[in-house]
Amino acid sequence: FHSQTITGNFAKVIHGLNANHLTDQVIQRSKRMILDTLGVGLLGTSTEVCHKVTQYSKIYSSDLSSTIWGHLDFRLPPLYAAFVNGVAVHSMDFDDTWHPATHPSGAVLPAVVALAEAFPQKKKVSGLDLLLAFNVGIEVQGRLLHFSREARNIPKRY
User: Fold this and answer.
1) Where in the chain are the domains?
2) Rounded to whole angstroms, how far apart are CA atoms 12 and 7?
3) Cβ atoms within 10 Å, residue 130
């Protein structure tokens, strides 16, 4: 009898996900979540906090780069692009949410897009790959929330 750890089982499930798991309904909902998150993120680029992190992050500008939403004048390494774009999304607090309380797309989409943009031209990520990565990120976040004792009490605390 082989006992599998929760972490090992979790990693096995996540590693086993592929584009065949994306049903038409999941694809349509994902596209809607992505569009909503981009819209909220673009609106968020006008907030004071987003201006501050954008100005701060300019010192990290480099050739290996990803887009800063709403800015054509400079690009940042994927880590900082994901940070700035994530701040833009969260600064409005209109992005999608689920129970236990979290904003799944605002944490996942900026990272996925920044990484996808950083791939070399000959290894560009397809739209389906991006949708899969987005959904894997959402799945990871949902499972981690499910495992979190602290998250279970959020509705009682507010």
Assistant:
1) 25-146
2) 9
3) 17
Q: Where are the beta strands (DSSP E) in the chain?
A: 66-68, 71-76
- The pTM of the full predicted model, rounded to 2 decimals, is 0.85
Tokens at residue 50, please? 């987003």
- CB–CB of 131/30 below 8 Å? yes
Superfamily the domain 25-146 falls into = 2-methylcitrate dehydratase PrpD (1.10.4100.10)
Give 32-35 contacts, CB < 8 A, sequence gap 24+: 33/96, 33/104, 33/105, 33/109, 33/134, 33/138, 34/105, 34/109, 34/134
Nearest in space to 81 (alpha carbons), one of 68, 94, 98, 64: 68
- Angle of helix 6-15 relative to helix 127-147, nearest 10 degrees? 160
Note down pLDDT in tens along the chain; length 158 residues: 455 777 788 888 888 899 999 999 999 999 999 999 999 999 999 999 999 999 999 898 877 789 999 988 888 999 999 999 999 999 987 777 776 667 889 999 999 999 999 888 888 889 999 999 999 999 888 888 777 766 566 656 55
